[in-house]
């Protein structure tokens, strides 16, 4: 049987594994890996990785649309994983991130490049489509492609203005949180949940996160507008699940 070529890259083309769930591109001392069937049975992932001699376990979690098929985390059951710009280090070996568009302001990977002589087993966390009524474990940027607020930025809209826009999009607010802006030290958002009836419509949206179900978002709000949207975004990454 002839190999199935997905598309050419900067080096070797991607070719589907025998179970047709993962695609691989042989780059010599590394092999590039991409998920091509985020709905596949776990057995098919194991079969594809084993065919290339890679000790990789793929954990597929229900995800919002922009994270389906994307890798969001790398772990090793017996080694520490150190994050570096553009990749990860495990026991002195480098795993390079293959980044691509589509995740908005949420960092994710289209795939990874793994040493062919990988010594430590890896666990990858990636997104799959959520089933009917299933809670999203991986929650992406709600303004990213395919998400509930694709192309919209609610930062510094009043709560009244944000509610009007959400109504037009048929999107509801799952949870409101108080903003930590101006607070020193740690801030646990789950300890600062606000009731909708207690929030003045003149307050402002500081951050918008995806909700855990289709058509929902979570909003961080405060009495004054924010002048640090990027800082707020970086803090929000700690509360992405």
Could you give the topology of this structure?
Layout: E1 15-16, E2 22-26, E3 30-35, H1 42-51, E4 56-63, E5 71-75, E6 81-84, E7 87-90, E8 93-98, E9 111-115, E10 122-129, H2 159-168, E11 172-178, E12 193-194, E13 204-210, E14 216-222, H3 229-236
Parallel strand pairs: 4-10, 11-14
Antiparallel strand pairs: 1-2, 2-3, 3-9, 5-10, 6-7, 7-8, 8-9, 11-12, 13-14
Question: Main attributes?
Answer:
about 240 residues; four-stranded mixed β-sheet; mainly beta; 14 strands; about 30% strand; disordered N terminus; disordered C terminus; seven-stranded antiparallel β-sheet; about 10% helix
Describe this structure as you would to a colleague:
- Helix content is 12%, strand content 32%.
- The chain has a seven-stranded antiparallel sheet with strand order 1-2-3-9-8-7-6, covered by helices on one side. The chain has a four-stranded mixed sheet with strand order 12-11-14-13. A three-stranded mixed sheet has the order 4-10-5, covered by helices on one side.
- The protein has three helices and 14 strands.
- The radius of gyration is 20 Å and the shape is elongated.
- Residues 1-9 and 234-240 have low confidence and may be disordered.
- It has two domains: 15-129, no CATH class; 159-239, no CATH class.
- It is mainly β.
What is the structure about, briefly put?
This protein is mainly beta and 241 residues long.
User: Structural class of the helices, strands and pairings?
Assistant: mainly beta
- Alpha plus pi helix count: 3
The helical percent reads 10-25%
**Strands side by side in the biggest sheet:** 1-2-3-9-8-7-6
Based on DSSP secondary structure assignment, what is the total number of beta strands? 14
Query: In angstroms, what is the radius of gyration?
Result: 20 Å
Measured distance between first and last alpha carbons:
42 Å
What kind of sheet is the major sheet? 7 strands, antiparallel
Number of separate structural domains:
2
- Morphology call: elongated
The mean pLDDT is 90
Low-pLDDT parts are 1-9, 234-240
| Helix/strand order | EEEHEEEEEEEHEEEEH
Which strand-content bin applies to the residues?
25-35%
